[in-house]
Amino acid sequence: MHDPPGIVPPQRGWMQEFEVSPTRSIFAIGMAMLLLVLSDGPSARAQSNSRTASDPMLNSGPPAWDANHDGVYTCDEWKKYADRLFTAADRNHDGNLDKTEFESIRKLDPTLAEADFGYFDENQDGKIARKEFVEKPSAFILRFDRNGDCRVTADEIKAGSAPKQEGPVERPRDRFH
């Protein structure tokens, strides 16, 4: 039997597409419980989230520029990453970033979302040359590199994430210029 012209036959409901057996439901619940137990439950997640929720530099997780994935962030890795960011943002390939191109960098890397154009435009000529961008130290390294070796370890991140002490605070110095 054919449907009359202009009449669309009824489709199967979306719920029917995802029929779930009792065995699958039990398995899914078991896996969810196992994941909660292995992660020390919601309280551990809440503690770690509360630590980073107020820290914009750590909100998006560890920086993406740890090239060898060893958990140690180096100045050399930062410079290589910054060079790749610059290349991606320099749409007209003139070797400089204007303010519009710089905005794309702010969108590409969450740790640079609040970056100021003027910080990178060292000679204040209204454009950022590759050298100005790549050679500028990472705010992440400036903040967390406690011993000045141009390497940030997990212990330094932990120490840098600890609650702030009251009293005068020394501002991180730009050791690269």
Task: Provide an overview of this structure.
There is one protein chain. The chain is mainly alpha-helical. The protein contains nine helices and four strands; from the N terminus they run αααβαβααβααβα. It has helices at residues 14-17, 22-38, 41-53, 75-89, 99-108, 117-120, 130-135, 139-144, 154-161; strands at 73-74, 96-97, 128-129, 151-152. The strands form two sheets. Strands 1-4 form a two-stranded antiparallel ribbon. A two-stranded antiparallel ribbon has the order 2-3. The longest helix has 17 residues, at 22-38. It is elongated, with a radius of gyration of 25 Å.
Low-confidence residue ranges: 12-53
Strand-residue fraction?
A: under 5%
Helix content: 40-55%
What's the gyration radius in Å?
25 Å
Main β-sheet, in a few words?
A: 2 strands, antiparallel
> How many DSSP E strands?
4
Note the total helix count.
9
What is the mean pLDDT?
A: 73
Order of helices and strands: HHHEHEHHEHHEH
CA(first)-CA(last) distance: 82 Å
| Coarse shape | elongated
Strand order of the largest sheet: 1-4
Classify the secondary structure makeup into a structural class: mainly alpha
Relevant terms:
177 residues; two-stranded antiparallel sheet; two-stranded antiparallel ribbon
Give a nutshell description of this structure:
The protein has about 180 residues and is mainly alpha-helical.
How would you summarize the topology of this molecule?
Elements: H1 14-17, H2 22-38, H3 41-53, E1 73-74, H4 75-89, E2 96-97, H5 99-108, H6 117-120, E3 128-129, H7 130-135, H8 139-144, E4 151-152, H9 154-161
Antiparallel strand pairs: 1-4, 2-3
Helix pairs in contact: 4-5
